[in-house]
Amino acid sequence: MCPLGGSLFGGSGPPWTTHEMVAHCLVIESSAGLVLVDTGFGTDDVKHPKRLGQPFRAATRPRVSLEDTALSRIAALGLDPADVRHIVLTHLDVDHAGGLGDFPDAEVHVHRDEHAIAMNPPLRQSPRYIQPQWEHGPRWELYAPGGDEWFGLESVRVVPGTDEEVLLIPTAGHSRGHSAVAVRHDGRWFLHCGDAYFHHAEVETPPSCPRGLHVFQNLTAYDHKARLANQERLRELRRAHGAEVDLFCSHDPHDLARFNGRSGGGESEGASADARA
Question: Which of its termini does the chain have fewer beta carbons within 10 Å around, N or C?
Answer without folding.
Answer: N
